[in-house]
């Protein structure tokens, strides 16, 4: 069933690199929006200025662009509900915080951070909630005139939500079904900070309302915040316009024990970010899928299968196919284990199915980065077509193709020397004389000469194939050896055979 007026948002905080869990959240938002003819919105939630990292917002936008998840509305694209950066909407939030004060659903709290820190030390499991708020310095305990005086004197304060006692707060999650919370276990979250900036709790509700968000997809780590948000929708008089929520399962460590983190990637040697992220404070570089040689199509395909499937055995999906087949009811409630080997499998499959012409610019850049100058633009596509089935990461194109453009830097003599003899030397010397006068460079012609000569000399052709391969490429790898010889040409093939024979 197609939903009407679908508006979804991906709302990251610019505090660092974009974790693959964040990209998956963006992806599921995007798929749902496009499937229903709706709008995919990027909203930057930068209200926590203490954690703001310069360059992180641009990085997030670049990651989405690389993945092909281009927002319909964003700080860059603009839109009818601009601005899309929360720091540019600061005054909007105060208005609603004051409304909550006026209705008795929020209050001013003048407690200092030192006071609260001491309380946390003195009181085990202290929370600013209905059990403790009446003994603290706030507008619920102070006379109105004293509150007014403190505000007039510019005494720092925050605005907190007043969570009711003894209520059940629930909602229907699109993935998990009915979810219910006890209000007595919910603390009075800060809504507006002392610097006038809203917290996530107030900003997300106000912005979702003002931007007419219809569905909200976010990670399950936000479930504990749900009761506060539900109360805000109710207290602000918007409960009937609250988006439908879906809390996505976590992406877990490879062993399934806990949420996947950047540290796991560093420890186990795989990326957890979409693109390289350099931490300006520590100087630490976190590798990204893009720079490690993943195609965006493979990365997105892999992420889609972390916690979702279409109910069939199909694993490879284009973005268009994902839009067509995506459904909320196929998202698992359980966390999905991250499997880097599976991610590489997706990439290898996508390299195979990607047209050579589309791989060409990136392969050319990889080769040139490694010192190989491409002069013959017609030759490179033929090389790519020949070897792309053997590449797992894009960087593999260098190792798999370098020998087509330059002599191997090393020859694995040890691989052939133990079984080498005079008869094999004679074979290759004779082979040189035969192909030297050959005009047909097709793989089949070279193969015929090779195998016919082997039969005439009484040598098994199979015993000669490995030495021939090593002579041409330097090691035990590469596509069919006669395809290689044909691509290299007779002159280069002869030169490499002679070069290796001198070392045997």
The CATH topology of the largest domain is what?
A: Rossmann fold
Largest sheet: 3 strands, antiparallel
Approximately what portion of the residues adopt beta-strand conformation? 5-15%
Write the CATH architecture name of the largest domain: 3-Layer(aba) Sandwich
Which homologous superfamily in CATH is the superfamily of the largest domain? HUPs
Provide the structure class. Answer: mainly alpha
* β-strand number: 13
Number of helices: 19
Biggest β-sheet: strands ordered side by side in the sheet: 3-4-7
- Roughly how many Å apart are the termini? 71 Å
What coarse outline follows from CA principal-axis ratios? elongated
| Assembly level | single chain
- Average pLDDT, rounded to a whole number, is 95
CATH class of the largest domain: Alpha Beta
What percent of residues adopt helix (DSSP H or I)?
40-55%
Our Rg estimate from Cα atoms comes to 32 Å
Whole-number count of domains: 4
Segments where pLDDT lies below 50 for 5+ residues? none
């Amino acid at each position: 069933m197609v939903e009407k007026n679908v508006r979804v948002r991906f709302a990251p905080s610019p505090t660092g690199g974009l974790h693959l869990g964040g990209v998956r959240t963006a992806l599921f938002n995007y798929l749902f929006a496009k499937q229903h003819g709706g709008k995919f919105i990027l909203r930057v939630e930068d209200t926590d200025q203490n954690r703001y990292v310069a360059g992180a917002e641009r990085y997030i936008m670049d990651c989405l662009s690389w993945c092909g998840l281009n927002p319909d509305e964003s700080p860059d694209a603009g839109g009818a509900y601009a601005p899309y950066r929360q720091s540019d909407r600061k005054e909007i939030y105060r208005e609603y915080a004051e409304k909550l004060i006026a209705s008795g659903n929020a209050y001013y709290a003048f407690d200092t951070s030192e006071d609260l820190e001491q309380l946390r030390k003195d009181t085990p499991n202290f929370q600013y909630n209905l059990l403790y708020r009446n003994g603290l310095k706030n507008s619920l305990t102070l006379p109105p005139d004293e509150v007014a005086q403190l505000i007039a004197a510019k005494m720092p304060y925050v605005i907190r939500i007043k969570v009711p006692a003894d209520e059940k707060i629930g909602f229907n999650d699109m993935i998990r079904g009915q979810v219910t919370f006890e209000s007595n276990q919910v603390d009075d979250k800060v809504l507006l900070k002392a610097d006038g900036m809203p917290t996530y709790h107030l900003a997300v509700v106000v912005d979702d309302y003002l931007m007419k968000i219809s569905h909200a997809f976010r990670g399950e780590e936000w479930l504990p915040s749900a009761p506060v948000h539900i109360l805000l929708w109710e207290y602000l008089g918007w409960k009937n316009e609250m988006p439908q929520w879906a809390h996505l399962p976590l992406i877990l460590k490879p062993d399934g024990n806990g949420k996947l983190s950047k540290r796991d990637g560093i420890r186990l040697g795989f990326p957890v970010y979409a693109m390289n992220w350099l931490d300006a404070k520590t100087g630490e570089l976190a590798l990204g899928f893009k720079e490690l040689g993943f195609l965006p199509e493979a990365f997105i395909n892999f992420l889609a299968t972390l916690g979702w499937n279409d109910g069939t055995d199909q694993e490879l999906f284009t973005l268009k196919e994902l839009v067509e087949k995506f459904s909320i009811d196929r998202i698992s409630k359980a966390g999905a284990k991250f499997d880097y080997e599976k991610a590489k499998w997706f990439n290898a499959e996508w390299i195979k199915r990607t047209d050579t012409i589309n791989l060409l610019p990136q392969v050319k850049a990889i080769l040139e980065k490694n010192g190989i100058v491409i002069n013959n633009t017609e030759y490179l596509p033929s090389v790519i077509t020949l070897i792309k089935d053997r590449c797992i990461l894009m960087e593999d194109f260098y190792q798999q193709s370098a020998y087509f453009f330059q002599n191997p830097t090393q020859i694995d003599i040890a691989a052939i020397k133990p079984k080498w003899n005079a008869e094999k030397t004679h074979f290759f010397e004779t082979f040189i004389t035969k192909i030297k006068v050959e005009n047909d460079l097709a793989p089949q012609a070279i193969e015929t000469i090779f195998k016919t000569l082997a039969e005439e000399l009484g040598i098994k052709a199979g015993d000669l194939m490995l030495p021939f391969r090593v002579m041409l490429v330097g090691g035990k790898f590469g596509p069919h050896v006669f395809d290689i010889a044909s691509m290299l040409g007779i002159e280069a093939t002869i030169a490499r055979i002679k070069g290796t024979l001198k070392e045997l």
